[in-house]
Write the structure tokens for this entry.
Amino acid sequence: MALVKVVSNNLFSGANLQKLAVGAQVEVDSSTAEKWVAAGLVEMIEDRTFEVATPGDDAPEQPEQPEQPVTTSKKGK
């Protein structure tokens, strides 16, 4: 994902083609941001990459929790 600032007054985005105002900051996919920057429609503010934390080899393993049965109550008339 990338954070970009709109610098062009003719940029439309989204399924309903909403016009983005000049100066608006929008978070878009990195490949989309690169295309818009190349076209001169936006300025790149920040290219964001997400890191996913995973437990290391020495982390203690937690026991798996058993599934709880779903109970439904029926009220009679």
